[in-house]
Amino acid sequence: MNGIPQKPESNVPGIVVAILIFGIVLAGLFATQHIIVKSFIQAFFPNYTLYTDVFPGEWLITSKSFTGGNKLSTREMEIGKVLERIRLRKYNQSNQDLNLFWGKQDLKQKSHKRGGTIYFIKPNLVLFPLHIFVATILTFLILLYFPPSPRLNPLRHSIQREYERLSFLLYKQFTAHGLDFDKVVALPEKERERKILQSTLSEIVTSEVEDYLKIQRWVRGESANPTIPITFFFRYRISSAYSNVIQGLVSGGAGILIFVIGLRGLKLIPPEEPSLILMALFLEFILLVILMFTFVGTAQEERLDRIVKELEAEQRDAIKEQTHALNRFIDSSTTGSRASSTQKLSDYEERAILDEVMALMLKSLEKKKPGHGS
């Protein structure tokens, strides 16, 4: 429990398994996207009709909201005739591209003539960010339980590594403050909390001990609650390691969205072909959702406190060894004023620890600033 965490090893078999699962899920999403989208449109937009077999790699969406009476069926018959002419290459027998182009123009003209709306959607472009996001979530949920071996499961391997790392840091913190980590975590919850609050440890340690005990039960197979590893992974891995990367991606997604909307404002993107705009909207929405989950439950003060603890755990042992060496030197070279020397050494140790921790913390925070080094 309190050993030094081992250096992360390459988990090639686990990565291969994860890629295979992700690929299978992604392929399934692309294969069933027309069924899912058609069901979605029928459920939430019943005034629209989806055609998926008219244009190669492109869907046709038309509205049903007209003036009423028999004009609905009349318009549908007109659209049906145009679609049939496109399939039979009536617009251009020799060139399929021209046949599709003039077919689209005819569809736009007849749709606008009766006051309806029509859209030509490229589903692979529009839904690509959403498919990647959903496939990642489903792969993540699958890897929570299968395969059970960390060697074949990179997610379990990563969670196990973060669990050991948290155990090591907590052990070092408790030992530095004169507490027995194993005995404290074995206490009942209220008594354990009281013990920590009465010590010189930070209050944040209380929540981290609770997180540690929860993930310990999950690692040992004593709990099957999926929220435990998800919360732990986002709090101790994603948030601490990739928060700046995610913020940069969100900013980049916003830039792409603004650029695409600008193209639409300049009328370089026709209103009947909103595929690029929808793709940019999906991309920015997904990045904002990821950013939200990254920072949920992880305050800035908590992240700074964790940085301080990591730096303190790394430097305390080295500083203590230096202090003991100075103590031995002074003991061998002086016979008097022992109390004064001990007090000076104690002051030296406290100042040295504080200086080292603050210097390394400032250096670490400087590296984490967005745009550092650019």
Describe this structure in words.
The protein is mostly helical. The protein has three domains: 25-130, no CATH class; 154-295, no CATH class; 300-368, no CATH class. It is 71% helix and 5% strand. The protein is built from 13 helices and three strands; from the N terminus they run αββααβαααααααααα. The chain has a three-stranded antiparallel sheet, sandwiched between helices. The chain is elongated, with a radius of gyration of 31 Å.
Radius of gyration: 31 Å
The string of secondary-structure elements, in order, is: HEEHHEHHHHHHHHHH
- Based on helices, strands and strand pairing, what is the structural class? mainly alpha
Helix content: over 70%
Shape designation: elongated
Please list the strands of the largest sheet in the order they lie side by side: 1-2-3
**End-to-end separation:** 40 Å
Count of helical regions = 13
Keywords:
3 domains, 13 helices, three-stranded antiparallel sheet
Question: Which secondary structure elements does this structure contain, and how are they paired or packed?
Answer:
Blueprint: H1 12-44, E1 48-55, E2 58-63, H2 71-87, H3 96-113, E3 118-121, H4 123-126, H5 128-143, H6 154-176, H7 181-185, H8 189-198, H9 204-219, H10 227-265, H11 275-295, H12 300-333, H13 338-368
Antiparallel strand pairs: 1-2, 2-3
Helix pairs in contact: 1-5, 2-3, 5-11, 6-9, 6-10, 6-12, 10-11, 12-13
Give a brief description.
Helices cover 71% and strands 5% of the residues. It is mainly alpha-helical and 374 residues long.
